[in-house]
Amino acid sequence: MGMALGNGGDDKHPVPTLNVTPLIDVALVVLIIFMVVTPMLMKQFWLNLPKKEQEEKEPPPTDDANKPLVMTVDPDGTIRVNQTALARGEIRERLPRMIAAKRQKVLYFDAHDDVPYGVAVEAMDLARAGGARSIAMLTEKLAR
Predict the structure, then answer these.
(1) 4-34: per-residue pLDDT in tens?
(2) What is the CATH number that goes with domain 69-137?
(3) pTM higher than 0.85 for the full model?
(4) In what order do the strands lie in the sheet with 79-81?
(5) Phi, psi (5° rounding) for residue 136?
(6) pLDDT value at position 2?
(7) Where are the domains of the chain?
(8) Tens of pLDDT along 44-75?
(9) Alpha carbon 11 to chain centroid distance?
(10) Quick one: CA dihedral 29, 30, 35, 38, positive or negative?
(11) Residue 131 Ramachandran class (φ > 0 left, ψ -120 to 50 alpha, else beta)
């Protein structure tokens, strides 16, 4: 805190004045710290989910070429494609033919809640190796 000794009153008593420069310096440093740290605190993960349709859909046609191709992984690790159980070695051979027979070239993937993450990823890797270029994750339970 500084003090001025002249022209501020009578000569017998000094007039105190407040030096605000250090206060402004500290405030600016704190402001700069918050400006640098704030963008690092915001972490965002964007996930685009399909919107639910409110109206009832008409039943899909019975044509096999219109039925979606769905790969499921059971709790015991069994991989099924449209309810047909496939061994891990068969996926690479049979999946390209199944995809070629469909009009829509998307493979839908669903894993049971009790399946370990590694088993689900291995099944997706096998599907990718079997020719699936577009794999869509199902967000709702399948009606079995």
Answers:
(1) 555 555 667 888 888 899 999 999 999 999 9
(2) 3.30.420.270
(3) no
(4) 84-86, 79-81, 69-73, 106-111, 134-137
(5) -110, 135
(6) 56
(7) 2-41, 69-137
(8) 667 777 777 666 566 655 566 578 888 999 98
(9) 73
(10) positive
(11) left
Alpha carbon distances (Å) from 41 to 37, 87, 94: 7, 46, 47
Which single residue is written with the structure tokens 């000094």? Answer: 14
Q: Which two tokens stand for residue 59?
A: 């039943």
The strand pairing partners of 2, in sequence order, are: 17
The pLDDT of residue 63 is 60
Paired tokens of 108? 């839908």
Secondary structure in 3-state letters for the chain: CEEECCCCCCCCCCEEECCCHHHHHHHHHHHHHHHHHHHHHCCCCCCCCCCCCCCCCCCCCCCCCCCCEEEEECCCCCEEECCEEECHHHHHHHHHHHHHCCCCCEEEEEECCCCCHHHHHHHHHHHHHCCCCEEEECCCCCCC
pLDDT one-digit tens code per residue, 89-131:
888 888 888 888 888 888 899 988 889 988 989 999 998 888 8
Q: How far is Cα 33 from Cα 12, in angstroms, rounded to an integer? A: 45
